[in-house]
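To whoever is on call:

I kicked off a structure prediction for a single chain this morning and the downstream step that reads the tokens threw a length-mismatch warning. I double-checked the sequence; it's 264 residues and nothing unusual in it as far as I can see. Pasting both halves so you can look.
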Amino acid sequence: MSAAFPGLGTVVNVVAVLLGASLGMVIGNRLPERTRSIVTDCLGLTTLLMALLSAWEVTSRSLTDAVGTGAPMLIVLGSLLVGAICGSALHIERRLEGLAAAVQRRVHRSAAPGPDAAAGEGASADEERERFIEGWLTASLLFCVGPLTILGSLNDGLGRGIDQLALKSVLDGFAALAFASTFGIGVLLSAVSVAVVQGALTVVGVLLGSVLPEAHIAALTATGGLLLVAIALRLLRIREIPVGDLLPALVVAPLLTQLVVALR
């Protein structure tokens, strides 16, 4: 799916969050659990299809011309291995989960009633404020931390389409609906966080597109495609692969490609 301008994917994502949160505030959590489960399965299958299309970039003519016919698969494999070693050593997945848990603990702690807390307007206002903060922080973390955010925004900036951000928009829309039914307007304003974070990553993609050769971008896309496979397996509840620990592979892929080009 081509974009009319860099950042279109982020615009679509922001609109999806706004619509989902608005619906969530209106209809609440009326969708049955079975329906939500089937929708998640459909999104997982779609993610898998998109992942395979991205991973197919390993056969890109520009990549094989730059590094040879046998090297692309080794570059992707090496990127994943080196990225996984670096990511697990840095405990990226655990740190991301810890960040979310710390924010939630802090919000819950600040929401705990003090000695003078009593029923009434003051207590009600405090509860409403803390519910807003928790909804905004929780939704912002969910929508802005993850491989689809990084991969999709970079690809948007690189001019390789907004397919991944379109899929993320659907995921975020349903998540916003569910969260807003509990947390209210705070989830609605998490759209601002999405705009800032993904907008910045899209700008990085635009800058990379003017620097990285086509072969390096193909290696990055193919490696990212395998990360999307991991996301699909998680959505389908097949295997919980720590995708966060694999994120450094996106940096390693173009560097490894450049190394092979230099040694060739």
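Update from on-call: the warning came from a stale cache, not from the record. Cleared it. Sanity check on the structure: The longest helix spans residues 185-209.
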